[in-house]
Amino acid sequence: MLLDGEEWQNYFRDFERSAFRLEVHQIYTALSPALLLLLESVRVSEAWRGKGVGMRLTVTALRRLAVPGTVAVCYPAPIHDHGPDEPCSYASDDPEVRRPDEEAMEKLRRAWERHAFRPIGEGVYARRIEP
Question: What single string gives the DSSP state of each residue in 71-127?
Answer without folding.
Answer: EEEE---------TTS--GGG-S-HHHHHHHHHHHHHHHHHHHHTT-EEEETTEEEE
